[in-house]
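Cast an eye over my tokenised protein here and flag anything odd:

===
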Amino acid sequence: MTTADKIEGAPLIAPSTTDHPLYDNVVEACRTVFDPEIPVNIFDLGLVYTIDISAENEVDITMTLTAPGCPVAGEMPGWVADAVEPLAGVKSVNVKMTFDPPWGMDMMSDEARLELGFM
């Protein structure tokens, strides 16, 4: 089996730890962070790709931006970490930025599409 065979069929976005007791609270904290150019929170925009929570309650968030040249690219990970870190039970937060896969409008929730008039 070659490396290409192992990658074939693998998800581009790693799955989140949705069964962790902290998951819903982390999602709600992410929903308090807004893209300054679009009046919708980053979670419903589809900018949060993965929320991975370890057994020790260490939270790793992989996210993207609507565009690599976004003016808040340097600040957004800090905003997300600041929203999640105060949650009861969270040991640490690490926010990683990626542009692979690139964000697309199809990643938005139905709520975000409705709010922006795309539905």
